[in-house]
Design a protein that fits this description.
There is one protein chain. This protein is of the alpha/beta class. It has 2 domains: 124 residues, Rossmann fold (3-Layer(aba) Sandwich); 266 residues, P-loop containing nucleotide triphosphate hydrolases (Rossmann fold), CATH 3.40.50.300. Helix content is 42%, strand content 18%. The strands form 2 sheets. It has an 8-stranded mixed beta sheet with strand order 8-9-7-10-6-11-12-13, sandwiched between helices. Strands 2-1-3-4-5 form a 5-stranded parallel beta sheet, with helices on one face. Strand 4, helix 4 and strand 5 form a beta-alpha-beta unit.
Amino acid sequence: MLDILLISSDDERAGRIAALVAKENTGHRLRTVRAGAARLAEYRENAQKADLLIIDDVHLQQRDLAAVEAVASSAPRLSCLLVTPSLSQEWLVAAMRAGVRHVLSWPIDEAAFGAELTLIGEKKSAGMGRESRVLSFVSPRGGSGTTLLTINLGYALARDRGKRTLIVDLSRQFSDAHLMLADKPPAATIVDLCSQIDRLDGAFFDACAMHVHPSLDVLAGASDPIKAADLRAPQVERILSFAIPRYDAVLVDLGRFVDPISMLALDRSSDIGVMLRQSIPHLHTGRRLVDILRELGYSTSKLRVLLNEYDKNASVDISTFEEALGVRIAHRLPRDDKHAGQAIEQGMPLLEVARSSALASSIDAFADLLWPKPLDATSGIFSRLFTSKPAAAPMRTLRAES
């Protein structure tokens, strides 16, 4: 059941929305206030108690979205649905920056409205399930290493820390994350899952996901940008709402995309990894990306800026990056073309191909920052220092069929 607060400037339209709510689920609780969005601050306390805030203002102006943003920022669990006569790109961007993640045009399409209520209900239910942690990785430029890091971090969490882990490939420019883990094509991709979203249940999801390790699954991305264009935000949100509670850790490779689809993952993320290389172009585009993430409402405390191919002698040093971005560098990854290339060519995790390499050790250290390995309280420091590491998993396990 959803607790819904409707702010509407028109009685007739409010009645139409109330009828749609009742038709979808008579158990939903609906409270209606006759007012415009500009007066939203007067009803902040009521909004903070709701699961869903529906804003329907015939005379809505972009400047009124400031009141929406103030309420949304004070209630992190509140979903906002905006009904607007305009669905222009300018309006969508303005709405996203105000914290609105659901937008419908008037007259409201009944099926679309029902789908939005279902998604918001699933999101609420998902919050009551497993304590999951979502990490998204994004970069302002291609070839930054987000996929390599995402794959190997996921493998480290699954194999060495026993975390049930899912990797979601939401990069939409020739997605190929699965190629770094298996030598067989996926049975299905996220596009296939979206196209049959009405079949989504545990059995169907398990059939679509690649099971590359007993604790590591991969949801493969679209094989090309044309197929990726078929992705729709409501379907992707439903997949995330379904999948996240089933795992301890969900890692999302966003590639270079910050748009309504990638924001579905960013909204759920406890940490957002911004992957940069140590160069002037990355410094400029990285600063713009960090600014965009801030403008969209993502707290600086969530941002984890990662420097790939770090070189202490480079002309652009860490202090220059930190001053330009206004964010501290969270972790540095050394350059290791040889071992990274071997891992990519063999379709194997770097932590298997070159476990003792500097790059593998750095990725493992980053995993420790996120999920520290538990220490045996009965062991002394010397026993921990000289305890041998567990043997690597057999190769046949890594390449198990999906």
